[in-house]
Amino acid sequence: MPQRSLPRPRGDLSAAVIELLTRTPGSAVPDPSGLDPYGEDLLLTLHTCYELHYQGFAGVDENWEWDPDLLRMRRDLEHTLLTALGADVPGGDDVDGELDGLLEPTSDTDGIAGFLAERGTADQLREYFVHRSIYHHIEADPYAWVIPRLRGQAKASLVAVEFDEFGGGRGERVHAQLFADLLAGAGLEPGYLHYLDAVPAPMLALVDMMSLFGLHRGLRGALVGHFATVEITSSPASRRLAELARTLLPHPACAHFYAEHVEADAVHEQVLRRDVIAGLLAAEPGEAASIVFGIQATNLLEDRFADHILQCWNDDRGSLREAISAPAAPA
Is the pLDDT of residue 319 over 90? Predict the structure, then answer.
């Protein structure tokens, strides 16, 4: 898979870091202070730093991944984001209460799926796919980092869920590949992070949070809470999105991605709650507050993402940073 080029900057810090990565590791790193934790500049800078742990960028020296000064700068940005998330969620340690709340039914008229079902267009559904592309290109990757930090049944069960996410050993069924197929079926570019420059801050925040939780052992509970939130809420949402894709877009790959998640994620929900979370809490009861934080932070950022899209669509304007080209003929 070819590496993508460095992204376009969104402020002074991201411009400085993107320019820095064209140099030799060990070059002076800029000061990251005074940024909006939910702003484009901070979030793109974090995303750029995290991408060094995934596929990297064309022309960037791989030794930047562990450059100590860049890691110190990233630590400061992470602290800014974590402090904001901690201040914006209620906290607590009632894991069962938070999980039960995720199972409460929502109205079919609510949220992005409700808007699309009532008056959405094929172009708006494609726009939604573009936002989600930077998430689904690494859909299950950050969760793999927590595997060596778990023990016993919690580890075994999380690996079982990841095995499904990675296609059960079949490359063409890896969920990230299924989403690439969806993009191609929708007439969009399926390449890895192709639309990064078009995706605004709300989705960047979600993807950065996944990487942040995954890379830090001390946030293992938060990552498990985030993973559980995704799987518990995925099945009903995927059912609605599969129906919308069948209605608005003719290519079967657009509906197939979501149809694949309906049954699988209903099973994953039970495994994560009964085996992974229960197993982690049995071994480490002190992780309850971190699990709750992961659930609440995920809900906060998903709500911010939905609010952004719905405000744009209700104002009859696009929700991306830049217009995407007209759809190509589906592959």
Answer: yes
Question: Does residue 216 surpass a pLDDT of 70?
Answer: yes
Other C-beta atoms closer than 10 Å to the C-beta of 109 total 10
Token pair recorded at residue 22: 């064209």
CB 177 within 8 A of CB 306: no
Pinpoint the alpha helices (H) of 103-200.
Answer: 111-119, 122-136, 141-144, 152-165, 175-185
For 271-323, the DSSP string reads HIIIIIIHHHHHH-GGGHHHHHHHHHHHHHHHHHHHHHHHHHHHTTS--SSSP
CA distance 128 to 227: 21
Could you report the per-residue pLDDT of 58-72, keeping only the tens digit for each?
Answer: 999 999 999 999 999
Measured distance CA(42)–CA(241) in Å, rounded: 31
Integer distance in angstroms from the first to the last C-alpha of the chain? 18
Q: CA 73 to CA 299: how far, in whole Å?
A: 27
d(CA 57, CA 61): 9
Residue 326 has pLDDT above 70, yes or no: no
* Residue 284, burial from CB neighbour count under 10 angstroms (0-12, 13-18, 19+): middle
Q: Report the distance separating Cα 250 and Cα 256, nearest Å.
A: 11
Q: Give the burial class of 4: count Cβ atoms within 10 A of its Cβ; 0-12 exposed, 13-18 middle, 19 or more buried.
A: middle
Longest pairwise C-alpha distance within the chain: 54
Cα angle, residue 89 at apex, residues 85 and 90 outer, rounded to 5°: 145
Residue 48 DSSP class: H
